Amino acid sequence: MYPLRRNRRLRTSEAIRSLVRETIITPNDFIVPLFVVEGSGIKEEIPSMPNYYRQSLDLLGKEVKELWAMGLKSVLLFVKVHDHLKDNAGTEAINPDGLMQRAIKTVKDACPDMLVMTDVALDPYSSYGHDGIVGNGEILNDETNVALAKMGLSHAQAGADILAPSDMMDGRIYEMRTTLEEEGFLNTGIMSYSAKYASAFYGPFRDALDSAPADIQDVPKDKKTYQMDFANRDEAVKETLMDIEEGADIVMVKPGLAYLDIVRDIRDAVDVPVAVYQVSGEYAMLKAAAAQGWLDHDAVMLEQITAIKRAGAHMMASYFAKDVVKLLG
Ligand code: PBG
After folding, report:
1. Read out DSSP for 112-134?
2. Of the residues 108, 196, 223, 309, which is catalytic?
3. In order of start, what are the domains of the chain with their CATH numbers?
């Protein structure tokens, strides 16, 4: 067909490139993860996540107002709890006056229209750093589901809009959905981490929350019996379809960049919105390379975010959310 068709014609200027651009990033694409700690006046940088912070509740209100003003309208809350509150069953997770429950109220008080999503998993509350209850050297599936459903209910009662179970137990979406229905929380949504892989990219996050699996006898050293094997692709679709049947409103793939084949498979297979979590290790890699002067931070950030959306994400949980929105201007 050459020279009748010259593809470069559509690349000759920024004007024509922007006219034919297929993927556009806007503030509407983002969910902002926030790390919350006890205390007051605390804004501490996470060492392996430069320019990302754990903040106390008194600063959280200001933070969410700033996000809202930037057009960022969804947050995903995580809490770092004191060691003395941790046990195997994650009992503190359902304390109506616990840190998460107060954080939800703080965000809603400061910014009533902000969409509040909450992490539902036992690891920040677990003395063993596991997402579920440990027994007989393994993670107990069904007992954990009961605990997660109670935890989710407690978040809903505190005012959470969407529960985000990040644990990968079998059947937890069903358990959570039926509990919410029975208790009258018909409009509380569930964003399921449906295809979550056992990934070494979560390292900096576990530093942030002090939630890594403990090195204790008879406690599994990793999360490979519940999180997925990164060698598997078809399994991600199976996991995700099951979560939708169980009542998930939004499904998620995690991590992001190394899993874009999975994102596209799932986008093609489902009829619900697809979220992608661009995780802590992805953030840390770029920050480190940029600090060395080896990569152009803003250019690579935008390229990565665009790639995730292009692969099929309707929304992205990303530590770069503020940076990207500032860059977009
Ligand atoms: C745990 C949880 C993890 C992340 C979100 N929820 C870590 C893990 O599974 O060990 C990781 C997020 C990130 O790395 O940014 N329920």
Report:
1. TTSEEEEEE-SGGGBTT--SSEE
2. 196
3. 24-328 (3.20.20.70)
Q: What is the pTM of this model?
A: 0.97
Q: How many CB atoms lie within 10 A of CB 287?
A: 22
Strand blocks (E) in 197-328: 250-254, 274-278, 315-318
Assess contact for 223 and 213: CB atoms under 8 A: yes
pLDDT at 257 over 90: yes
Ligand 1 midpoint to CA 314 (Å): 20
Q: Over the stretch 212-229, which tens digit does the pLDDT of each residue have?
A: 999 999 999 999 999 999
Q: What is the pLDDT of residues 151-200, one digit of tens each?
A: 999 999 999 999 999 999 999 999 999 999 999 999 999 999 999 999 99
Compute the distance from residue 5 Cα to the ligand 1 centre, in Å. 48
Strands (E), 148-269: 162-165, 189-196, 250-254
**Taking the CA atoms of the chain, what radius of gyration do you get in angstroms?**
20
- Atom 14 (ligand 1): residue with closest C-alpha? 202
Is 239 within 8 Å of 271 (Cβ atoms)? Answer: no
d(CA 56, CA 43): 7
Burial class (CB within 10 angstroms; exposed 0-12, middle 13-18, buried 19+) of 215: exposed
Minimum-distance ligand 1 atom for the alpha carbon of 166: 16
Q: What is the spatial distance between Cα 280 and Cα 283, in angstroms, rounded to a whole number?
A: 5
Query: Ligand 1 centre and the CA of 206: distance in Å?
Result: 7
CA distance 45 to 86: 23
Over range 289-295, report the average pLDDT: 98
Binding-site positions for Mg(2+) = 239
Q: Calculate mean pLDDT across residues 3-14.
A: 96
Residue type, 284: A
- Is 196 designated active site? yes
Render pLDDT for 88-114 as a digit per residue (tens, 0 to 9): 999 999 999 999 999 999 999 999 999
Question: One-letter amino acid identity for 19?
Answer: L
Confidence of residue 210 (pLDDT cuts 50, 70, 90): confident
